[in-house]
Write a structure and sequence with these properties.
Layout: E1 4-13, E2 20-30, E3 35-39, H1 46-53, E4 61-66, E5 69-70, H2 76-85, E6 87-91, H3 102-112, H4 117-130, H5 146-158, E7 164-168, H6 176-190, E8 195-199, H7 203-206, E9 211-216, E10 219-224, E11 235-236
Parallel strand pairs: 3-8, 3-9, 6-7, 7-8
Antiparallel strand pairs: 1-2, 1-4, 4-5, 9-10, 10-11
Helix pairs in contact: 3-4, 3-5, 5-6
């Protein structure tokens, strides 16, 4: 069963002459353990799609189901709970809290949900250890490199039982080596059963995904399936 299903999503901003169609009927399904990359030029609707998939915006029409819940049927409190418990976000600028250490940034979502501090710290330490950040756990964000900060952001995004990872240009602020490392970390996260949707401009990084979906002017204009044994992708264009 797909963890994320969006069907016929449209999103229109403004009215009359100022009317802009950001999405024009986009459908997408992402299974647990799968990573889907979204590519397209600026203004193609990538970030809008991610925001709607993460319940941060409402579509003009169409439907979104997350973990078999119809988002349109959820009230504000239930949507907030869904974001806290199921969805993790990773952004290009990390969005770490400067006054908290790495482990405090990671464990904050758990503590906000009422998890005891000791248990939250054990879970945070485990995740940071998996990402090679045990020695950095008690350092503040400004004491970390860009790659280290992004790894902390990934740990925060998947802490607890979160099962859907939404990443908007997670490697955009990093050099090539760290960008590749972050994409590999997201793949490793998917191997734990997490479903991931990653917006990226970098075709080489997108090649690490199981599928690559191309958007242009709010429409899906192409999709590449997983890399086949011979090293070639199969491509379909609607």
């Amino acid at each position: 069963m797909s963890l994320l299903v969006v069907r016929d999503l449209t999103k229109i901003y403004g009215r009359g002459a100022a009317r802009v169609q950001a999405l024009g009927g986009v459908s997408l399904a992402v299974e647990p353990g799968s990573m889907v990359a979204i590519m397209g030029p600026s203004g193609s609707g990538k970030s809008t799609l991610l925001a709607i998939a993460g319940t941060l915006e409402d579509p003009t029409s169409g439907s979104v189901r997350i973990a078999d819940a119809d988002v349109a049927a959820l009230g504000a409190d239930d949507r907030a709970r869904l974001r806290r418990e199921v969805i993790g976000f990773v952004f290009q600028d990390f969005n770490l809290l400067a006054g908290l250490t790495a482990i405090e940034n990671v464990t904050l979502p758990l503590e906000l949900d009422g998890v005891a501090r000791g248990r939250a710290e054990r879970e945070g330490a485990r995740l940071l250890g998996e990402l090679g950040l045990t020695e950095q756990a008690y350092r503040f964000p400004d004491e970390l490199s860009g790659g280290e900060r992004q790894r902390v952001a990934i740990a925060r995004a998947v802490v607890g039982d979160r099962r859907l990872l939404l990443a908007d240009e997670p490697s955009g602020a990093l050099d090539t080596r760290n960008g590749e490392s972050v994409m590999e970390l997201i793949r490793a996260t998917c191997q734990r059963g997490v479903a991931a949707v990653v917006v990226t401009h970098d075709a080489q990084l997108a090649s690490r995904a199981d599928r690559v979906i191309h958007l242009r002017d709010g429409l899906v204009v192409g999709e590449e399936a997983a890399v086949e044994p011979g090293g070639e992708r199969s491509e379909t264009v609607p």
